[in-house]
């Protein structure tokens, strides 16, 4: 039951009755409207989330195939089937597709779109049409990028560093234009989420009862709004440099190529947190649910997301320790790099404390989160190594950086994303997947991932540069181990695709709450009805109240919706009631 959190908060009494969702709904959002046109014109956040899921899955497939092509080429020190120019194009496309079309949008656009209104008890996001527009902007940006690939390709690397990107013959202009367009999708999604969280919470949802997943999406949205315009301006200047020769980055015309790096990394390091902070939100939800414990250190986890968003804007210079910065600037950026590890460490220790003495159930979602904790911690520690000036001078632009980045992005964000997909899959489709196959796939991915990237730490520490087409023979065993691991990991992802698609046709029906969660999204039917809840929910308990028996756990609906049977009277902040009930 809601209690006073501040002396200046006005409360209003509302009569509620206990709400019980339909376990097997006959009508839900998947069968309300059928046909391709109904999907293409929908403003339902759930369907838009699924359209994003199909799109980013396609890009993940393409990016993964390109990665296997690279690893196959590197099987031997000499050329196998790619020449040097084509190799450059392939790793550029792998990086650009994975970063801009999968890692950055995946969690906010797919799981954020689907889950955020459900966790607020809202019917939809604040601006449904803008949400659909964001999806189409994403598609348009992808089409420009595809056109660039088919009409000459790009060989600059995903960072598009000047002066090479301003002079190369590749179709850099079209590629950067596609990513420029894509940025608007990210900005509009961030605006939509912030307004939704502020204005569309159901009665009883105070900031202290906001799921930690929404705190993470809130912090991510702030980064999207503030950082993405910097990337847009940077790419626009690069396009003007190529098309008009204005000389902003060209030293022959008074420009500075290092200025491009400052602009680019001022966006791209916060972009790392656009990728990983939403994953932190998923981890909080899954660990609490499968440990059956109230989350430990709620406010520490919530505020650390905002702290990461803030500090993330101050550390871009650690990508440029070898670019000729002053010693003082290098020291400041090194110190700030260590600082950003503090809020991340706070999360790790709070998650471990949540699991301590919990009733842990290692179902597939929890299994992927356990993998996340192991791999992401390695990524974090190796990031601290790269933040140390003396060490980074040796390791800069080596395979050590490649391994660190993949331990953070794939070992962190992708594992969290997989945990979230497995966690909310029954809610999305009302079907259960094969738990046995999910565990087998997790094993393939864990083994394959470590076989792929652990040897790269060794190669990097021994001086193997990244992005090289050929290499000396002493590194061949490490490269071959990485290639074998990449194929094992690829098998794991194919198994995931198989059993998830199979579950749509042959999977068992999922009840409204197959995990026994206390979070709001699990208190409605699976799949949810068109408007998420049959009634406007009144929140009596918090999302992590596992210390209360399920028989005492209550979700109310305002009695005015269904006449009699009022069960109790609760106090909710008047500002959260307004005219919703």
TrEMBL record:
Residues 31-540 form the Cytochrome oxidase subunit I profile domain. GO terms for molecular function: cytochrome-c oxidase activity; heme binding; metal ion binding. It is an enzyme of class 7 (translocase). It is found in: Cell membrane; Membrane. Pathway: Energy metabolism; oxidative phosphorylation. Belongs to the heme-copper respiratory oxidase family. This is Cytochrome c oxidase subunit 1. It comes from Rhodohalobacter barkolensis. The lineage of its organism: Bacteria, Pseudomonadati, Balneolota, Balneolia, Balneolales. The gene is ctaD.
